[in-house]
Amino acid sequence: MYDIRSVSRAMIIGNITIIEFKELPSGTAVLNFTVATNTKSKDDGDNIAMFHYISAWAKYGQTLHSLLTVGDLVLVDCSLSYRDRLLEGKKVRRIQLNCQKLIVLQKKKTDRIEVSNDILEAIGG
After folding, report:
1. Number of structural domains found in the chain
2. Residue 74: count of CB within 10 angstroms of its CB
3. Which residues neighbour 100 within 8 Å (Cβ) at sequence distance 6 or greater?
4. How far apart are alpha carbons 123 and 94 in whole angstroms?
5. Which of 16, 26, 32, 70 is the most buried if burial means most Cβ atoms within 10 Å?
6. CA-to-CA separations, 27 to 9, 21, 57, in angstroms, rounded
7. Minimal CA–CA distance to 76: which of 9, 30, 4, 12?
8. Is 121 exposed, middle or buried (0-12, 13-18, 19+ CB in 10 A)?
9. Rounded mean pLDDT, 17-34
10. What pTM, to 2 d.p., does this model score?
11. Whether 84 contacts 116, CB under 8 Å
């Protein structure tokens, strides 16, 4: 159980837009993926797209890589950590979202091929 006073977590529901799988020189597998969400603008009420960059590590990343498709609607439970980077010569701290649990809420709908009755009769169906 978590100590509620010190939990750094985020839950995100949205659609997967990018999936990148790689192995680091150390041999550790990492799946980096982006989940898109929408929020309403305070000014004019228009939808604003936000993109969340998430990583899944080792065997869990390999498993997710074989299951996920761009366009899937997912719920992602993430732990938060911080990484320091150099950006234009300045040290900046970036929030890293690490996938702890992922639930596919809806798979992307695939294109359906409609077959007419004429084609079915021609192939004996």
Report:
1. 1
2. 21
3. 9, 77, 78, 79
4. 59
5. 16
6. 27, 13, 11
7. 12
8. exposed
9. 96
10. 0.75
11. no
Residue 4 DSSP one-character state: G
pLDDT at position 20 over 90 = yes
Q: With contact defined as beta carbons under 8 Å apart, do 13 and 37 qualify?
A: yes
| pLDDT band at 36; cut points 50, 70, 90 | very high
Place of tokens 């010569």: 89
Q: What is the predicted pLDDT for the residue at 60?
A: 95
Q: What percent of the chain has pLDDT over 70?
A: 82
CATH of the domain at 64: 2.40.50.140
Report the C-alpha gap between 12 and 54 in whole angstroms: 10
